[in-house]
Each structure stands twice: as C-alpha cells, then as structure tokens.
Batch of 2 targets.
Target 1
Amino acid sequence: MGKRIVTFGEIMLRYSKEGARRLGQGNVWEGQFGGSEANVAVSLALLGNNVEYVTRLPDNDLTAACKHTLRYRGVDVNHIVLGGQRIGTYYYEPAKDLRRSKVIYDRAGSSFYSSAPGMYPWKDIFSKADIFHCSGITCAVSQSATDATFEAVRTARAAGLRITCDINYRKNLWKYEGADAHATLNRLMQYSDFIFGDQDEWEIATAVPQVPMGHMQADTELDMEAYGKYFEEMHRQFPNCGEMMLGLRNQMTSSHHTLTALLWYKGTIYRTRIWDIQNIVDPVGVGDAFVAAYIHAAEKWPGDPQRGLDFATAAAMLKNSIEGDFNLVTEDEILDVL
C-alpha cells in the first residue's frame, strides 16, 4: 500500500439534468457525490494507495451514503467530523457544442463552510501519514474554512509530511468579507512541495502573466524558452517547492479538447505529448486526475519525473471519458494508454 496520503476538503452533492439539458429543462435531476479533494482521494485509492479523506458533514443519512460511496472506492473515512446542518451542493450544466458549461454553488452554511481551527484532530490524523493534499478551493469557501486549512498545513509541515497543493481557483466562490484569492492562494503555496494548476490559476495566485498559448493543436510547438523564464519566476516566488506542474488545455468545442502539461522538477522542465481528445463525456475533475496520478507516480517511480508527467497527463486524458467527478481508472489502464 505504500505511504499514507491524507486529503482534506468539502465533498458535495452534484446535481445535473439528464443528458445535455440546461438547468431549466426537464423535471428529473441526477445526483452524485463529488468534490476536488474527494476526487483525488478516490483516484489514489483506485491506483492502489493507502488514502484517507477528511471533511465535515452533518450527522444524517446523506452522510452515511457519502461515507459508503467513499469506502466502496477504498478510501478511509474514519476521521470525517460530524457537525453542522447540511451537505453542500452544486448544480452543473454541461457544455454542448459551442455552449459553455455552467456551475452554480450552494455551499454557504454547509457543514464544511463552518469548519474552524480545533475541529479536526490533525496530530492524530497525521501521526501515521506521509503526504497531505489540500487545495485552494477550501480557502474559497469561508474565512473559517481557510483558517482550518492553514491549521492543517502548518501541522503537516511541523510533522514533516510532504505537502501537495492544487491551486483550484474558483471565481464564483471567493465571496466572503475580506476574501483575497491572490494573497491566500500564494500563502498556501508557500507551504507546498508540489503545486498544480492551469495557466489561469497560476496567474491568479502569482500575478505573473501566462505564456500566450494560442490555438493549441496536437502538433503545436510550445515556446519552451518562454516557459523557462516563467518557471524561473515561479521558483523565485516559491523557493521551497521542488515540483510545479502547469496544465494546458485548449477547448475547441465542448467535446473536442487538446491537453498537455509541463513539469518543473528541481530546476529542469519536462514536457509530454499533446493529447487530442474528441467525443468528451465529462471534463469535470480533469485537474484532480492530474494531481492524483502524479502523486501516485512520484511514489511508485521516484526520481523519474518524465514518467510521472506522462502518467499524470494520460490519467487526466482518460478522465474526459468518464461521467461524474471521480476518475475511475486503474494503473494498468493508464499504462496501456501510454
């Protein structure tokens, strides 16, 4: 089972209408559990890792169903804290052809929204852990959830854990009084050994303009000189972070994307192929698939960053073929694609 990994964040109920219907069409809603850090936990478990997911949920039957879903996928939920009144939700309208997707969050007042320092027994949780994964999305929920997140990363750092971070910027969430996405995300990233984000997220967190990408095709040659200077600035801002990944995605239509990533690993930049993905089923959770697969690869094949990058990008590519938040693929399936 290898090293023990802990992830922390809010799991929600995701609601959508059937097929590609808009939120105002039809009468039937489809519901399933999902959320960035839970998605990472499920993916890591399916890849064979020893992983625990920590969150706060109400003491009711919905939480029992949520726990069962995670346990069924192999995730330890023994430190989920019970409290508060309800589980957070979000409403997802999928993209179709040239129509963009739409997300409406309903998280204010959820059990996790009122998370606060002292609610989670971090010393006990981390006593047998080796890696802690968090994301900026937890800091976008509320000020108290932000405070709880920083309590977790400080405790993890003091305990000597490897800290991985997904920037995970969601502009629709940073609404509470005093919310400052740039300052908060940048501070969170200072604790991190590995950071992942797409070009827009890195720009929000660092205030460094992204490298112009243009209309990326499968045979596009990326400007590696420009990316070299870009990562030099990232390393200047985060001198204690040894691994930084930049996800690059071009969306031609809702069902046709190109996808690749660059990895800065201890001073060297690695790149992988550009995947041309057609007939996309569901792009939600692609970033989470990147993160989980890279964490897995870094532990399975230490010191081989090219293999880790290739593996992570292939896993993210496969997520586009799977409905729902979770990337339900195995290590063998990813390796077969490679």
Target 2
Amino acid sequence: MKWHRRADDAQAALDRYFWNDGIHMFNIETPCPNGACNTIFHYWWMAHAVDALTDGYLRTGGSGYARRLEQLYDGLLRRNGGAFPNELYDDMEWMALAWLRAYEATGVKPYKEAALILWEDIKTGWNDHMGGGIAWQKSQLDYKNTPANAPAVILAARLYRAFGEPNNLEWALRIYEWQKTHLVDPDSGFVWDGMNRTGDGSIDKDWKFTYCQGVYIGAGVELYRTTGEEAYLQDAIRTAEAARAQLADGTTGVFPDEGDGDGGLFKGILVRYLAELAKEAPARSAAEELLLGNASALWNKGRDANRQLFHTDWSSQPAERVTLSTQLSAVMLLERAAELEKNGLLEAASA
C-alpha cells in the first residue's frame, strides 16, 4: 500500500511544519518563526485543512486526527469571532462541506451544527441578479461565479442524503441548473469562472482554473448519487475530459502550476472530485489516469524528500518556503491516491 504510506508521510509533514498549538490552527506557511507569517486569516484554507484531517481520520481511524479536528474547530471559532459565518459565500460553503464530512466521520455534534448554521447563511446569497445563482460575497450580490455555486450543489445534495430534508435537494437541483446554463461551455463541458464581475454581464471565459472544473465534476457526481440520473454523471465525465484537454500537459497529463496563494489549493480541489468521479465511473472517464499521473509526478518530482513538503508545480522541487495551501493540495492528492489504491482503481489505471 505505497500510497497509504505516502499519504501518512505528507500528513505527518503537514502537522510537523504547519500546526501551531498556540492558536489551534495551521500556520499559513513554513518556515514561520513564532507564528509571524499569520498576518491574514485564510478562512477557506482552514476549511480544506479540516477536510485533509478528515481524510486522514477516515483512512486510518487515528485518534491524532480526531484530536486535531477538535482543536482546529475551537481555534477557528475563536479566530472568527465566536461564529462560523463570514462575508464570502464560497468560503462558507467550503467550511460547511468540511464540517459536514467531519461530523459524518466522527459523530461530533458541534460539527453538524456548524454545517447547518453555515448552510442557512449560504442560502441568503441566492438572488435574481443574472437570472439567479448564489453571489460570491455579501458586498457584491450581482457577481455570480462557479466557486459560489458548484460547491453549494455538493453541499445541498450531501445535506439531503444525510438528513433527508426535501428542500435541500430542491436547492441542489436549482443551483445546478443555473450553473450549467450560465457557466458551462455547451460545446465542450469546460467550466467558466464567473459572470458580471465587472458589472457588464460578461463571462470570465479566459480564467481557466482547475478549481472550477473540480467543483462542477463534484456537483454532477453528487447529484448522480442522489437522484440516480445518468445525465449528471455524464456531465461530470465530460468536464473531466475537458479539464484534461484544456489544462493538463499534453505529454505528462500533469495539471498546471497555479501559484502558492489561493491558487495553491486549486489542483487539490480538482483531484478530490476527480476521485469521486473515479469511484462512480471506473474506466469511463479520464479520472483514474489523471490521478495516477499527477500523484506519481508529485511524489517523484514535486517533493522535498527530506521534509515531505511539496511544490505548486507538481513536476519540480519546492523551495524552502512552502505555503499551507500548497501542502494541503498535495495531501489531498495523496489521500485520493491511497483511497483509490485501496479500491484497486489505481492499479487498473496503470495496467
């Protein structure tokens, strides 16, 4: 189980080099002497840290992951002023998704409560500007984008399956229809980033991010799981193929370097939902091959073998400074590889 061991190594490095026990959160980069790097509260990065810890807990059942989740919950609540909602709808969606997964993994009730509180706030972002959709942020209600809508579909569908409230499925279907109608290229299935950012109704078609492909793939997979309708799975398969065609290197299949700020998380989001597609449609999509190629490149070329830290470019060695967003993406990829290895999918992809 080589990917299992590699995921262990990456998780151990995440804890060793980034965890800050003084604030019960992760530092936003390493090195970070005395926590001096933490000048900005990266709320949505921390949401993905919750997800990464949950990945480790689900894979191993280790009490250390459960303990870190409890500590991070307390640290985030304290840092955010005693409540989880904030001004950005997409950030809240990531936090809700993460705590919902953590609740389902551990049964800790405050995690469920956090997800439900956030969901109630997220729904206030839907309005009639641009024909519907959830806004990106509370101060710009007429700007609608994929980051604020596709994750909301995933969240609503999962909430419906977890707690059985029909209204949540209605939300998932309505948001998905808006997303597909407005921000997916009907010719290719490639997902555009947003519309009306500049107030003129235009679509940001030149912003080609792995993140957007990942969340739409995830939305399709979740609606397929929820409704059983093949059309949603076909949408996800089509977008995975578009992501490979337009974003992956034509020779290696490795996804692009998108920087070490917020962009450091983008590929991690894509591979998380490619893995969900691989589980639902083995051998029917680009997912398994893409995951194996990217995981192999990351481990063999994009890793500092002494520290088990990783680069934004999954084909080259990292420098001394590594951001939390970058390490989280690597952890997510290696956790996905370990999960698919357990299910026998990576071996099939490499055969």
